[in-house]
Amino acid sequence: EPSFHCIRCGTGGADQITHKLVLCLPKLQTRYPGTEIRSLSATPSEIHRQLLAGKLDLGYSAYLEEQPTLTYIPLVTSEVDLVVPKNHPLAGYSYQLPGNESLRIPLSMAEKTPFALIVEESVLRQVENAYFAEVNFQPTVLAVYSFPPTLKEYILHSGLAGLCPRHQHFDGMARVALTPPMYYTCGLYYRNDIHLSAPVKYLITLLREYPVDYDL
Q1: Contacts of 142 (CB under 8 A, 6+ apart)
Q2: Which DSSP string do the residues of 18-37 spell out, in sequence order?
Q3: Which one of 69, 118, 137, 152 has the fewest CB atoms closer than 10 angstroms to its CB?
Q4: In Å, how far from its chain's centre is CA 146?
Q5: Are strands 58-63 and 173-176 parallel, antiparallel or unpaired?
Q6: Nearest to residue 173, comparing CAs of 158, 194, 186?
């Protein structure tokens, strides 16, 4: 069984989040000697289950729906862009072009473009699917990927369109803002019916101090 000084943190599997935990460890151990962080890479739904079962102290991942039994601390919310090759007709609407800074288009303008989308079990795909239903859009999906950088290969080499959170800085693609906007949130969450230990509270403070570049 974990000791009092072992913080069990569920992560969504992002390397940036694991790296951020590692960066926090020296300060955490300086204030609370002997404290360890044990991380579990799992889907947000599994992290929620483990938290409610008392097997985790803290969750840190993207999330879609907030449960009333958990307290959420959003750390970063990233807008999701339509991304296309730079020679694609829709690339002319990119907000990266001079004069287009406030330009937005409906996703329906991409109805004739085949897409590469992330796997169904990911939070991002759930966000996308909810958005598709909201705007009544049915994408033609030609490729499905699980590792986010793979999207760049589909865009650049296969000419597909995709959806990419703005914080993910993949070069070589044209980014187009959507109307209405689509958002993707990442943050911390924990049970609101239990007392958090002092080391867990301090870890939360440290995680909130790091710049958003470390998130998602």
Answers
A1: 114, 115, 116, 158, 160
A2: HHHHHHHHHHHHHHSTT-EE
A3: 69
A4: 13
A5: unpaired
A6: 158
Question: Hey, what amino acid is at 76?
Answer: V
For the chain, percent helix, then strand, then coil, each to nearest 5?
A: 35, 30, 35
Report phi then psi at 4, rounded to 5.
Answer: -60, -30
CB 209 within 8 A of CB 20: no
pTM of the model: 0.76
Q: Where are the alpha helices (DSSP H) in the chain?
A: 15-31, 44-52, 123-135, 150-158, 198-209
Nearest-5° angle of CA 83, CA 173, CA 127? 25
